[in-house]
Amino acid sequence: MHGDKEVNKQLTKLISDLKDYQVALYIYSFARFLEVILLENFDEAYLDQITNKIYDYSFKYREIYTLCYDKIQNYADSSVNANLLKGFGNINKVLGETIAKVPVINNLQIDEVLIETGDKIKNYSSKKADKGIEKLIENQSSYVVPFVEKIEEINKLYNRPLEILFDHENIYLKSLEE
Fold this sequence. Notes:
Layout: H1 4-39, H2 44-77, H3 80-100, H4 110-137, H5 145-159, E1 162-166, E2 171-175
Antiparallel strand pairs: 1-2
Helix pairs in contact: 1-2, 1-4, 1-5, 2-4, 2-5, 3-4
């Protein structure tokens, strides 16, 4: 048994932990990029190893993020508040459908109002949970792609044949393998 307050508390803690994980992954990726630049080690196998390691860590982050997202979504959906709102929504809807079957009362549009209110209550419950989850969605990316892309560009420049083209203003480098 837990309420929305406990869900928000868990969500806040989870977001904080994911942000810490993101920062650690970002710093690791940046450090590996700087390592390549400062050591001037442009060996293809070495660069591939670094990009693969960063991708592995990024993939692990995405797995953990997905697991956390699913858990907190289920936790929010199973809260007392969410279940009460869904229950009230269902009661209103059933009551409206029942009234619609009564010949004299169905002309008053009470049935339509109750059905519509029931749907709105159920939608409010899901929207309320979604607002909290939106904060979690902001932490979806691991922000390592720019570092990997730059390391891959370095790999192309140093380890693949290039065609150099130039005009009176610019120099163009084109990989011959593309």
